[in-house]
């Protein structure tokens, strides 16, 4: 199935209204006028800035993604956004099941699965997030926790549909804490996830699926992380909010790919 593609995805979280988005994206385009075809780049602003992002990135090498969606097509779901709305807005990707959604908004594995399937149906690439807490790692249950999340998130997703899914490993204890999983720890969990995918599908399929790292990747640690054989990119938080640092991350990925 060929070489896996690097993916550098910026998750802006609850930062960047339309005017801030325009300023940030203009800066990013200035610093990265061309991006290697070996690296996919996506930015995921808040919903209110998606239109501005799509407009500013028209005819660029940078794609646009959303931070969430709801699994129903339409209806009385105040405050929610459907997959079809994201498609109409120009989104190619969507983050699903981020640890903050699970923690603050009580998202379950079942809900993550419904959202992932809806994204696939609408031809949006879901970035499905999995990861363990500090207590779960300390209790040595982290491999079982992540295995369970992967299995439940991908329930009833076929062996052809899974090829359009990206998995993001988020060690929750390394997000916004200043802590970072060592490159060896990241590689170990990515191998574990890939072995779980091989059990759910087969070895060839598992080897084709991108697994990106979502635990405080920044220019200072990106090279060590991205040179791990099973780390296929990064889901970038804080470092994606500055054009210079995000552009540097893209360049690092380009140099490794």
| Terminal CA distance | 17 Å
Helix proportion range:
40-55%
Protein structure class: alpha/beta
Note the total helix count.
11
Q: Would you tell me the overall average pLDDT?
A: 95
User: The CATH topology is what?
Assistant: TIM Barrel
Record the strand order, biggest sheet.
7-6-5-4-3-2-1-8
Total domains, how many?
1
Main pleated sheet = 8 strands, parallel
Instruction: State the CATH architecture.
Output: Alpha-Beta Barrel
Give the tags:
alpha/beta; TIM Barrel
Description:
- With 257 residues, the chain is an alpha/beta fold.
- The protein has one domain (6-256): TIM Barrel.
- The chain has eleven helices and eight strands.
- The chain has helices at residues 18-31, 50-56, 83-89, 99-105, 109-121, 134-138, 142-153, 183-200, 203-208, 219-226, 243-256; strands at residues 6-11, 39-44, 62-66, 93-96, 125-130, 166-169, 211-213, 233-236.
- It has an eight-stranded parallel sheet with strand order 7-6-5-4-3-2-1-8.
- Helix 1 (18-31) links the parallel strand 1 (6-11) and strand 2 (39-44).
- Helix 1 crosses helix 11 (243-256).
- The longest helix has 18 residues, at 183-200.
- It is globular.
- The protein starts with 5 loop residues before the first strand and ends with a helix.
- The relative contact order is 0.16.
- The mean pLDDT is 95.
Summary, kept brief:
By secondary structure, this protein is α/β, with parallel strands linked by helices. It has helices at residues 18-31, 50-56, 83-89, 99-105, 109-121, 134-138, 142-153, 183-200, 203-208, 219-226, 243-256; strands at residues 6-11, 39-44, 62-66, 93-96, 125-130, 166-169, 211-213, 233-236. Helix 1 packs across helix 11 and helix 10 packs parallel to helix 11.
